[in-house]
Amino acid sequence: MLVLWDIDGTLLHGAPRAHVKALAWAMARVWGVPATAADVTAIRPAGRTDQEIARAVLALHGVPGGDVTPRLPEWMALAAARHGEIERRHPAPAVAPGAAAALEAAAALGARQALLTGNLEPIGRAKMARAGLAGFFPVGQGAFGSDDERRERLVPVAAARARVAAGDVVVVGDTPRDIRCAHAAGARCVAVATGPHPAGELADADAVVPDLAGAVAALAAAAGPRASSTHS
């Protein structure tokens, strides 16, 4: 089983201020618009990829879609570099209660683990390093907002990198977009009601749990007999 963990709202809680500021700063530099962190917040970014966030914010500023696409690679590079420069000057999001224990428990089930996040890869990995969780997520695995603008295309990317079938993948996330991206690929989803969406809005997931401890219990159930034999 390959477990793909979301970052914001799942493994980390609270506003990712440095991330949001870096995205907006890079938009202003690349497209010459007065984009701000408030613009990013206004488009309700939870569950979106960073590329999708940029397109939505730039639309607010009247930038045609045809002018956005060719400059996205330049913007991604600038945003990632800017995040690295400013992250230590801003409060980091809090590590979710029990995050390290949950990751350790999932590994004990025999699960392989990687990230599946809308974050640009350098930003997502920087967040995990600052949270002390980077060691759970090998480089070259997972899928990120820098891999594709559309979140529903990310599970196949991560599955291909791990050389597993989508049916052997479980996504753990906190938004309806996590659920849709998992199911679009034929993967399962465990939704944790720790982000901006209450449990009722996550009902389409294969399991809805209140926290990361609940996610581990759902993963153990998904692993089935293999999990039992691991502990026998």
What is the gist of this entry?
The protein is an alpha/beta fold. It contains eleven helices and seven strands.
Question: How would you describe this protein?
Answer:
With 232 residues, this protein is α/β, with parallel strands linked by helices. It is built from eleven helices and seven strands. The chain has a five-stranded parallel β-sheet with strand order 4-1-5-6-7, with helices on both faces. Helix 9 links the parallel strand 5 and strand 6. Helix 5 packs parallel to helix 7 and helix 6 packs parallel to helix 10. The protein is globular. The two termini are 19 Å apart.
The beta-strand count equals 7
The average pLDDT is 94
| Helix content estimate | 40-55%
Tally of helical segments: 11
Note poorly predicted spans.
226-232
What is the terminal-to-terminal distance?
19 Å
Please tell me how large the radius of gyration is. 17 Å
Q: Could you state the order of secondary-structure elements as H and E?
A: EEHHHHHEHEHHEHEEHH
Strand content: 5-15%
Side by side, the strands of the main sheet go: 4-1-5-6-7
Coarse structural class? alpha/beta
Spatial shape = globular
Largest sheet: 5 strands, parallel
Per-chain topology:
Blueprint: E1 2-5, E2 12-13, H1 17-31, H2 37-42, H3 50-60, H4 65-68, H5 72-86, E3 94-95, H6 99-108, E4 112-115, H7 121-131, H8 154-162, E5 169-173, H9 176-184, E6 188-192, E7 207-209, H10 212-223, H11 225-230
Parallel strand pairs: 1-4, 1-5, 5-6, 6-7
Antiparallel strand pairs: 2-3
Helix pairs in contact: 1-5, 5-7, 6-10
For this entry, give a set of tags:
two-stranded antiparallel ribbon, 11 helices, about 45% helix, disordered C terminus, 5-stranded parallel sheet, alpha/beta, about 230 residues
